[in-house]
Amino acid sequence: MSLKLTAEVVTLQTTHRFVIARGGEEVYRVVWVRLTDEDGEEGWGEADPSKYYGETAETVLAALKQVEPHLPGDVFDLEAAEARFAQVVPKHAAARAALSAALHDLVGKRVGQPLWRLWGLNPFKAPCSSFTIGIDTPEKIRDKVLEAARYPILKIKLGTDQDEQILRTVRDATDKPIRVDANAGWTRQRAMQMLAMLKDHGVEFVEQPLPPQDLDGLAALRRQGILPVVGDESCIVNADIPRVAGAVDGINIKLAKCGSLREALRMIGTARAHGMLVMVGCMIESSLGITAAAHLAPLVDAADLDGAALTANDPFAGATIDGGQIRLPTGPGLGVRRR
Question: Which residues, other chains included, contact 13 with Cβ-Cβ below 8 Å and sequence gap of 6+?
Fold first, then answer.
């Protein structure tokens, strides 16, 4: 059965300019992918490209053109389809993730079941999602913390020369659990200096404190035993996990990095075999992108699936994180619809 591929760029606007250690933006261009079968049933997915990983909306569209002749004849042949996509466009993980989500969505719609049920998961086992506070002035950070009142866990972006002030500002405004993400913005010396302060301010764990390639430095931080260290930029795909397992306590899995839902499932299994904390995260995404990742949530320990909640013009409805609790759709496939 032949599939028709359609792709459309969608522009997302964040409520606040979203700033991390390596810069910030307020406009994000994602790609809505649709795969239509001969019966007119559509499977949806979203590519959420990151310039950090060498992808843009334009590179996604070009990659989809390359993949189009290689779409599967049998939509249920998911493993082979994803392997073929990886061979054709190995450097385009966001584009491949969109195709993977669209195929899984189509399969779920064909059998009339949500993806989490096809995987045999209990949606009520999904952890709470954190809500991210981007780098900003103390006044704006206080305002953002107040705006995030309904979320029980906050994730604080650090990696600047004002980190101590940012941390104090957040802690003065709330006593909620907080997690910290430095987005590779610290040196070893700076990270060592920050660990005790993070612990004193009730931080649960620190994500990617050092550059991705500095595994020796990450291992040294971990040996301090002060806080769990989670790798994000240091761990892209399943094959990375044995290499980073001795350097970090956990990994943050993102579909836009690893390239597919099935690769994400493999990463969860491998990380579990190494006794690691498993987290699922996101980019700035619409609810279409977030929902694909949210179907993995019952399998993980921690989640940061606030990408759609940070936008002002989300065009889709799917999984939600109201009150921090991840709620998965009950509709077939991904369970996403247009607003």
Answer: 26, 27, 28, 311, 312, 313
Q: To the nearest 10°, the Cα dihedral for 223, 227, 229, 230?
A: 160
Contact 100, 262 (CB under 8 A): yes
Query: Is the Cβ–Cβ distance between 157 and 135 less than 8 Å?
Result: yes
The structure tokens 């019952």 sit at: 298
Beta bridge partners of 187: none
The tokens for 191 are 């990270």
Q: Which residues contact 67 (CB under 8 A, 6 or more apart)?
A: 5, 85, 88, 89, 95, 96, 99
Which residues in the chain land under pLDDT 70?
Answer: 1
One CATH from 3.30.420.40, 3.20.20.120, 3.40.50.720, 1.25.40.180 for 117-338 = 3.20.20.120
Tokens of 20: 């991390």
Tell me the CB-side half-sphere exposure of residue 304, using CA atoms within 13 A: 26
DSSP string, 144-175: HHHHTTT-S-EEEE--STTHHHHHHHHHHH--
CATH 3.20.20.120 segments of the chain:
117-338
Amino acid, single-letter form, for residue 308: A
What is the distance, to the nearest Å, from the Cα of residue 54 to the centroid of all Cα atoms in its chain?
A: 17
Which is nearest to 106 in space by CA: 148, 71, 141, 149? 71
DSSP symbols for 278-319: EEE---S--HHHHHHHHTTGGG-SEE---TTTTBS---EE--
Which DSSP letter does residue 127 get?
A: P
Sequence-separated (6 or more) residues with CB below 8 Å from residue 82: 96, 99, 100, 103, 259, 260, 262, 263
CATH number of 4-111: 3.30.390.10
Q: What is the pLDDT of residue 1?
A: 63
Residue of 128, 142, 136 lying closest to 14 (CA atoms): 136
Taking the model in full, what pTM does it have? 0.97
